[in-house]
Amino acid sequence: MIFDETHPLEEVLVWGEPGIEALLGQLLPQSRSLFRSYYEVPKARGEFACMSALIESEGIKIIRARDAVAELLQHRDIPELPASIHDLKLALHHKADTTFEQYRHAKQNDLTKDGLTDISPIDVYNEVKRDIDIILEQDIAYYGEQGALRLNDLLSLSKPWPMANIFYGRDQSQVITDRVILSSLRWNIRKPEVRIFKDALHHLGYGSALTDIREGTIEGGDVAMFKGCCFIGVGARTSLSAVKAVCRQIGGSLQASNIELIAVVNRQHEEESNFFISPTSEHMQVMHLDMFWIPLTQDLVMAYTTELDHREAVRVWQEKGRILTERLGTFREFMSALGVEIFEVDEAEQKNFATNLLNLGNKKVIAALSSNPRVNTELEKRGFTVKYAELTKLVDGYGAVHCLTAPIKRRRPNS
Fold first, then answer.
1. Secondary structure of the chain: what % helix, strand, coil (to 5)?
2. Which residues contact 169 (CB under 8 A, 6 or more apart)?
3. Where exactly are the structural domains of the chain?
4. What is the per-residue pLDDT across 37-77, written as a single tens digit (0 to 9) for each?
C-alpha cells in the first residue's frame, strides 16, 4: 500500500545485485546498453549489498525479486537449457566473444567520448571474461548449481540482449494505492524485464493486485504518490497514452481515494522519443521524474527547477467513459499552488543524482552519494538524517538509490 512518497517505509522490493547480464552489457555500445561507457560490476555488486544493509538497518523489510525468480525457475521446464555449469560457462564466454567483436569499434567511440583514455575495449573485454567466472561461482554458492544455471541462462542467454538493466528494480512495476502497476518499458533491451517481474510478483503473492498497462510506455521511475496526487512523468520514457491507460484501469479507485492523476509532461522529449532509435544524453539525464524531483516532506520537495519549468502539469481524469485532460501550468507553478516549498538543486547536483534518493519517512533519507556537500548539509540543517549509499559505480547505469528500490508498503499516518 502506497499513498504518499513521504510516509514511513516498511517494505521495499528490489531486484538484487547486478550479475553476469550486467557484465555482458559492458560490451555493448551506450545506444544499446543504456549505460555510460564502462563501470566495474563486481564493485557495483558490493555497493548494492551496502545499500541493502543501510535499508535493513532501519528495520525495513527487503524483498528480492531475483531470489523469487531463481526459486520459481527450479520448477520450470526450460527448452535449450545448458546441460551443465560447464556448458553455461562456455555459452556465456561465447556471448562475450561475439558481442565484443560486433561492437568493439562502437565501444571505442564511447570510451573516447567519455574521456576514458586509460582503458580500451580489449581491457573491458578481458575484465568481463575474468569476472564472468568469479560472479558465476558466487551465484553457485548462493543459489546452488541448478539455480545459478537457470537464472543466468534466463538473464544472459534467453534473449538477443542480456538483461543488463534489470537491477534498476523500480522501473518494472510501481505500487499505486493497493494496486501494483506493471510497466511497459521503452527500449528493447529492457522490455523482457517486465515479464520476469510479473512472474516474481505472482510467486511472492501479489498476483491479485497486478494491473497491466498495454497502451503506450510507462516506467516506474516516472511514478510518485504525493500530497493527494499520483504524479506520472511524461517524456523520454513514459507516454501520455500510458497515463490515460492508467486512468482507464484504476482512475475510479484513485477518485474514490480522493487522489488526482497528474501527468508531468515534457512534450519535446515525448515527441523526440517516438522518432529516435536510441536515447540522447539529454533524455537520459532527465528520463524519469525521480531524476529531477523528489518529495521530502508534505511541505517540501527537492527539484532541479530548470526541468520543472520545462514540464507542464496536466490533470487526467475519466468522465462518462471519456478520458479528459486539463492543463494546469508549469510543474513549478503546480507545486506552488499546492503550497509546497522547492529545495532547488543546480545542474551539477542533479547530474550527480542528488534527487535520486530513497525517502524512508520521518525525515530520514538514503542519498546516493556524499559528493553533493551543499545539498547534504542543507538537508541536515533542515532536520533530516542523511545516510550515504556511496553508489560510485552503480550510478554509471544512469540510476541511483531511488531507481534501485520499489517501495511495496508505506505506513499511513494513524494506521
1. 45, 20, 35
2. 13, 14, 15, 16, 65, 197, 404, 405, 406
3. 19-31+64-157, 173-410
4. 678 899 999 999 999 999 999 999 999 999 999 999 998 99
Give the C-alpha separation, 267 to 231, whole Å: 16
401 SS3 class: helix
Name the pLDDT band for 127 (thresholds 50, 70, 90). Answer: very high
173-410 folds as L-arginine/glycine Amidinotransferase; Chain A (3.75.10)
pTM (predicted TM-score): 0.94
Cα distance between residue 69 and residue 54, in whole Å: 24
* Alpha helix stretches (DSSP H) within 57-84: 65-73
What is the pLDDT, as a whole number, of residue 397?
81
With beta carbons less than 8 A apart as the criterion, state whether 164 and 189 touch: yes
User: What CA–CA distance (Å, rounded) separates 353 from 46?
Assistant: 19
In this structure, what C-alpha cell is assigned to residue 134?
568469479
**CA torsion through residues 115, 117, 118, 123, sign:** positive
Distance between CA atoms of 406 and 243, rounded to whole angstroms? 19
Q: What amino acid is encoded at 23 in this protein?
A: L
The sign of the dihedral angle between the CA atoms of 382, 348, 303, 394 is: negative
Amino acid identity, position 131: D
